[in-house]
Amino acid sequence: MNNGSLIAPTTQRSPNNRRNIRSDDGSDAISQANNGERPQKVYSFVALPGINTKKRPRRRYDEIERHYACNYSGCTKSYGTLNHLNAHVQMQKHGPKRHPSEFKELRKQWRRQKREEEERKAAEAANTTNAKNVMGLNINSLSSI
């Protein structure tokens, strides 16, 4: 068995007991460090496709519609998703996991309320544009003046 092949390579050390690091331009980084400059590290990363896609922003605390409430006595927690409620229920030992079937009617009601609110906002927006046109303040006609 050849023991010479199992010896790990040693690092070269300078008289100051620092490692000699060669930069890409061939100069010693240790000489740059002695001049008061820090050696520049050069990283070469290959860009992966799809990495630069922008993530959607997280909802802020006050933006979360907390429809899923814990039904344990004395617990006032409520969550925006059933998964988060079930994580809470299991960690705090607040009974069995809740199932989507329990919230079926509630989800129908939430969707109905949301649809009505969107229709109301659309009607208000239409009324405000009609009011501007009636008063003769059509913005499109003002831009041509």
TrEMBL record:
Instruction: Enumerate the Gene3D superfamilies for this protein.
Output: Classic Zinc Finger (3.30.160.60)
Q: Where is the composition biased (Polar residues)?
A: 1-18
Q: Where is this region: Disordered?
A: 1-41
GO terms for MF = zinc ion binding
Gene Ontology terms: biological process: regulation of DNA-templated transcription
The C2H2-type domain covers which part of the protein?
68-99
The entry's protein name is: C2H2-type domain-containing protein
Tell me what organism the protein belongs to. Answer: Gigaspora rosea
